[in-house]
Amino acid sequence: MKKIIVILLCSLGLTANAQVTLTLKDALNYALQNKADAKKAKLQVENSEYQIQEIRSRALPQIHANGNLTYNPILQTSVIDGGSFGQPGTSIQATFGQKWTSGAGVNLTQALFDQSVFTGLRAAKSTREFYQINDQLTEEQVIERVANNYYSVYVQRERIKLLDSTYVNTTKVHDIVKGQYDNGLAKKIDLDRIVVKMSNIDTDRQQVKNQVELQENALKFYMGMPIETQIVIPKEEFEAVPASLTEVPNVENRTEYLLLKKQEELLIFQKKAVQAEYYPKLSLTAGYNYIGQGPEFPLFAKPSSGVYWSDYSGIGLNLSVPIFTGFGTRARVRQADVDIRTLQEDIKDTKLSLDLDYRNAMAQIDNNMVTIQNQKENMRLAGEILSNTKNNYLQGLASLTDLLDAENANQEAQNNYTRAVLNYKIAEVALIKSKGELKTLIK
Question: pTM for this structure?
Fold first, then answer.
């Protein structure tokens, strides 16, 4: 079912001027499928498999083919003792080699003992896990950004609805005052004040519409959705429900902490890889070669042309024992150790920060819930005051100033309530994040 929804959203999102009814869950699933950050994190996981294969290749045989062709226009002359040829006391000039030399062969090298290779193989699993955790962290970051922007879009849209409603109500008052003015029952200044009020409301409405467009564009960007797509957010997505009390979460289960611990593990392997330079290296080599020499171009030539071909092979062991490297290895080991200790300080600081995030989120949840209750009551009272003031104005028991003040108070109360609910929802996302449960939003 989830895949069907995502595919439907993708097809709608790619259609110009399409309209999509977007719940928070749908928005998050769409973002995880389409946002570049999420895609790149998954590509890093895929790339980690290739990095592991590269490390493993160092433990496998390395086979290379080789070939060469050399022409010697002037052969080197060597001077040798004539006593070897029955001419003691003389020197003989002898020319060695042939004008043409050609060779081809296959060489094999197999590491028998290389501590850095063994360390790399042990680090391969940690490398894969590091990128998997990083992928999970990226998904959580995408979820957090989309959720916060999703709620912000809703708030801006609610402000437009409120301004539209206020404009309609003010227009009704304008019509009443206009009728009174035409009948000589109201002053010109009263009518002008209503006109100014309507103009201010219209200006505010245009500004909020611009803010809505900018906020919607930001939401679509964080989702990876085409900007021209029209989105509809259901009303129930913005309900504030009191959060249940929970135990203090174990920050060591948070993705941010796990990623740092895995990074620490990789740095330890890195240090061991540098320390491996203290160890000797032993490798097996083997080769088989074929060589041709003669005064003529050797390829396809025969002994009748003075060109002779012969093969040779060899098998050997290579041992390299480090004795003194100018303290370079020691310096690199110490640098790796400093990197580990630096990261350990980051881990301690992150642990404190994650604990602080949870406690701050709980405090914000509690404070915002109280604010919501207060603002809901204020909104109810402001609505009653506006209704009573409007009736009194029509009966001549209240001034126009009282009516305008009541409208302003009612509008401000509704704005404060909507803003309080937004703050609560953002604090709710922060609380879910602090508990390491952001992915529950997509289930």
Answer: 0.78
